[in-house]
C-alpha cells in the first residue's frame, strides 16, 4: 500500500506532504481544485513521461516521492531481477530537472522508466474514466477472464513460444525472399561462375603473362642483342674479357710492391670471375631463346581472356576476378544451403505450432471454466447496484490464427433488462451502466489478485442516490483486503470512507496553489454537507451529512 506522498514544484503544488492509511480513503474537491494534478504527480512515480510543463517554477526541479509498504506482496524477485535493493518500506522518487531531463530512483538506486512502469503494475491500479471505456475492448475483456481463470503462467509460456514462432516465421520468409531473388539470377550466375572457373585464374599471373608475351613477341630483337653482347665480350682483339684479363695481368705485376696494389688486383680478379659468369649466362640465354609462335598465341589468348573478363566485371586485377568467382560460387551453392535451412525452419515452425496448440487448448479450456463463475458474480454485484435483470453472454470460439494471448475469439454480450436482446457491450450499455459494470469487474478481480492499492477516479460517473450508496458499500468491502481510494463527487460514496482527504485551491499574492489535507471528523461533516447542498450549507444538509456518516 502507499503510505505517504511528497510533492514539490509540480503544476499548482508548491510543496505537499501527506500520509495515507489502510482501508477505504476518499478524495473530494471542487472541479478544477487539483485532483487530476494529484493523480498526475502519482503517475510520475509510476513511470509516466513528463516534460517541463509539469514544473510550477521553471527554475527549480520537481520532486515527487512515494513510500510503499510492500512486505506482504512477495516482490523480492523483481528487485533481484532488476538489481535493486529490496526494502519492505520501498521509496520511489522521480525528479524533473529545469533542463527537461528526468531521473527516477527506487530505494535510491537509479532506474529507467520501463523498470518503474514494470514495478508499478504490482503496486497500484489507477482506474480512470478512460479505463471504463477499455471495458468494451476485447483485449481488456480477455484480461478479466484470464485473471479469473489464473491463466498467467499459461499465457506467459504461450507468449514465449509465440515469440519463437514469429521469429522463425520471419526467418523463413526472409530465406524464401532470398531464394526467390537468387533463383531469378541463378542461370546467369552459373554462366558467369563457369566462365570464370574455366579461365583457371591464379593470383598474380597477369604480370607473368604480360612479361612472357613481351619476351615471345620480341625473340629476334632479344637474339640480336644477345649476339652483340657475346661479341663484345668475346672478341679476340677488342673483347671485354681479353682486355680485362690483360688489365688484370699488368696489375698483378705491381701487387708485390704494396698491399694497395694487391687489393686492387684481387678486386679485378673478382670482376673477371663475375664477367665470365655473366658471359656464360648470356650464352645459356642465347641458346634458349628461339621463336615459338604456338606458345605466343596461347599466352596472347589467355591475356585477351583476362582483359575481356576484367572489362566485363569492371575490375582491374585478377585477384578481383577471383573474388567475384568465389562470390558467384557461394550464390550457386547457397541455393542448396538455403533449401536445407528452409526445410529445417519449417520443421521448427511445425514443432512450435504443435506446442502453441497444446497451450492454447489449455488456455481456452480454463477460460470456458471461468466464465460461468465470472458472469454469476457480476450479475450478483450488479443486482445490488440497481441492475436486477442484467445478463451476460460470454462466448469463446476458436480463432484461425495465433493471437497475442491464445487462439480464441471473444464475444462479450450484455443485456440490461428483461426482454431485450443481447448486444455488444460498448453499443448497448450506457455510461452509468458501464461505470457499475466496471466496479463489479474490479470487485471480482480483487479476489484473484494481490494488488496492494486501487484508485477509482470518478467511477461513480452517471450514478446517484441509492446506487451510489451501494457502489460505496462495494468499495468499502474491497478495502477489507486492499487499500482503496475513491475520487468522487457523490456524498453517498464519500461518507463510506475511513479517511477523507480534500483537494482545494488557495491564492497567495499572484500565485494559485493546490493543497491536500486530511479532514477531521467535524470538517468531514461540513465537506459532505457542502457536497449535498453547495456552499450555502443548511441545517438539513448537516443533519443529512451526519446521517450518511453514521
TrEMBL record:
Transmembrane segments: none annotated. Residues 1-510 form the RecF/RecN/SMC N-terminal domain. Residues 335-369 form a coiled coil. InterPro entries: DNA_recomb/repair_RecN (IPR004604), P-loop_NTPase (IPR027417), RecF/RecN/SMC_N (IPR003395). Keywords: ATP-binding, Coiled coil, DNA damage, DNA repair, Nucleotide-binding. Belongs to the RecN family. May be involved in recombinational repair of damaged DNA. This is DNA repair protein RecN. It comes from Flavobacterium cheonhonense.
Amino acid at each position: 500500500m502507499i503510505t505517504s506522498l511528497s510533492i514539490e514544484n509540480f503544476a499548482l503544488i508548491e510543496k505537499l506532504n501527506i500520509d495515507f492509511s489502510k482501508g477505504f480513503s476518499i478524495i473530494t474537491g471542487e472541479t478544477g481544485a487539483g485532483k487530476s494534478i494529484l493523480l498526475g504527480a502519482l503517475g510520475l512515480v509510476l513511470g509516466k513521461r513528463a516534460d517541463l510543463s509539469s514544473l510550477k517554477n521553471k527554475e527549480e526541479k520537481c520532486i515527487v516521492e512515494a513510500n510503499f509498504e510492500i512486505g506482504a506482496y512477495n516482490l523480492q524477485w523483481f528487485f533481484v531481477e532488476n538489481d535493486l535493493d529490496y526494502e519492505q518500506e520501498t521509496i520511489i522518487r522521480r525528479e524533473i530537472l529545469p533542463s527537461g531531463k528526468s531521473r527516477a530512483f527506487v530505494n535510491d538506486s537509479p532506474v529507467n522508466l520501463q523498470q518503474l512502469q514494470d514495478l508499478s503494475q504490482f503496486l497500484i491500479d489507477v482506474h480512470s474514466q478512460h479505463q471504463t471505456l477499455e471495458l468494451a475492448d476485447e483485449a481488456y475483456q480477455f484480461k478479466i477472464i484470464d485473471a479469473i481463470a489464473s491463466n498467467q503462467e499459461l499465457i506467459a509460456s504461450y507468449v514465449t513460444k509465440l515469440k519463437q514462432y514469429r521469429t522463425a516465421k520471419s526467418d523463413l520468409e526472409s530465406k524464401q525472399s532470398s531464394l526467390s531473388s537468387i533463383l531469378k539470377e541463378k542461370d546467369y550466375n552459373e554462366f558467369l561462375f563457369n566462365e570464370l572457373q574455366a579461365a583457371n585464374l591464379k593470383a598474380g599471373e597477369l604480370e607473368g603473362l604480360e612479361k612472357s608475351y613481351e619476351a615471345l613477341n620480341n625473340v629476334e630483337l632479344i637474339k640480336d642483342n644477345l649476339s652483340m653482347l657475346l661479341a663484345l665480350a668475346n672478341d679476340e682483339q677488342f673483347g671485354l674479357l681479353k682486355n680485362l684479363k690483360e688489365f688484370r695481368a699488368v696489375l698483378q705485376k705491381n701487387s708485390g710492391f704494396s698491399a694497395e696494389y694487391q687489393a686492387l688486383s684481387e678486386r679485378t680478379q673478382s670482376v673477371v670471375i663475375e664477367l665470365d659468369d655473366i658471359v656464360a649466362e648470356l650464352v645459356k640465354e642465347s641458346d634458349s631463346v628461339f621463336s615459338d609462335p604456338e606458345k605466343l598465341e596461347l599466352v596472347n589468348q589467355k591475356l585477351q581472356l583476362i582483359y575481356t573478363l576484367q572489362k566485363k566485371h569492371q575490375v582491374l586485377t585478377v585477384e578481383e576476378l577471383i573474388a567475384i568467382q568465389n562470390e558467384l560460387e557461394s550464390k550457386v551453392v547457397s541455393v542448396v544451403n538455403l533449401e536445407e535451412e528452409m526445410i529445417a525452419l519449417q520443421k521448427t515452425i511445425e514443432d512450435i505450432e504443435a506446442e502453441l496448440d497444446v497451450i492454447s487448448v489449455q488456455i481456452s479450456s480454463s477460460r470456458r471454466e471461468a466464465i460461468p463463475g465470472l458472469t454469476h458474480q457480476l450479475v450478483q454485484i450488479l443486482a445490488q447496484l440497481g441492475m436486477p435483470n442484467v445478463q451476460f453472454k460470454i462466448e469463446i470460439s476458436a480463432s484461425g490464427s495465433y493471437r497475442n494471448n491464445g487462439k480464441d475469439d471473444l464475444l462479450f454480450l450484455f443485456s440490461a433488462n428483461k426482454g431485450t436482446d443481447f448486444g455488444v457491450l460498448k453499443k448497448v450499455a450506457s455510461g452509468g451502466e458501464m461505470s457499475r459494470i466496471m466496479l463489479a469487474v474490479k470487485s471480482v478481480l480483487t479476489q484473484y489478485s494481490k494488488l496492494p492499492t486501487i484508485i477509482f477516479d470518478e467511477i461513480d460517473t452517471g450514478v446517484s442516490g441509492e446506487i451510489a450508496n451501494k457502489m460505496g458499500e462495494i468499495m468499502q468491502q474491497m478495502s477489507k483486503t486492499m487499500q482503496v481510494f475513491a475520487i468522487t463527487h457523490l456524498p453517498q460514496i464519500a461518507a463510506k470512507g475511513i479517511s477523507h482527504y480534500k483537494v482545494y485551491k488557495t491564492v497567495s499574492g499572484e500565485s494559485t496553489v493546490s493543497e491536500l489535507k486530511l479532514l477531521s471528523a467535524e470538517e468531514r461533516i461540513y465537506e459532505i454537507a457542502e457536497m449535498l447542498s453547495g456552499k450555502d450549507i443548511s441545517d438539513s444538509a448537516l443533519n443529512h451529512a451526519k446521517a450518511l456518516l453514521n
